[in-house]
Amino acid sequence: MAREFKRTDRIADALQRSVSRFIQQEIRDPRIGMVNVNDVAVTRDLAYAKIFVTFVGRETDEECEAALAVLNKAAGFLRSLVAKDLDLRTTPRLQFVYDKTTIRGNQLANLIDRAVADDKAKNPDAPAE
Fold first, then answer.
1. What GO biological process terms are annotated to this protein in UniProt (predicted)?
2. What is the residue-level pLDDT of the chain in tens, covering all 129 positions?
3. What is the pTM of this model?
């Protein structure tokens, strides 16, 4: 019988919980603000972990890039905290990546809503689905 989850997936989930908690509790830089840790991808040899994040309340790309630079600068500190928290032989090197999927998803949803509203305005007699 095959395993339900791979080891890298379980470690990625544990890293996501641990990193998000430590960012919230230990990082006091005001340039970061509120951070959502969306996903973690760990390499098969557990040497590297890409952490996909979004920043709440940051409108411009420059603000997001500045906050991302702060997180990447604090990656070694966060790695040491994660090493104490998780019982792993080697702790992966952390690399933070700005995740634009939620922003892009909201933009696409707004475009779809606008297209549906325009279609209803042009054809008011069309049946609603």
1. maturation of SSU-rRNA
2. 556 778 889 999 999 999 999 999 999 888 888 999 999 999 999 999 999 999 888 878 888 899 999 999 999 999 999 999 998 889 999 999 998 887 788 889 999 999 888 888 888 776 655
3. 0.79
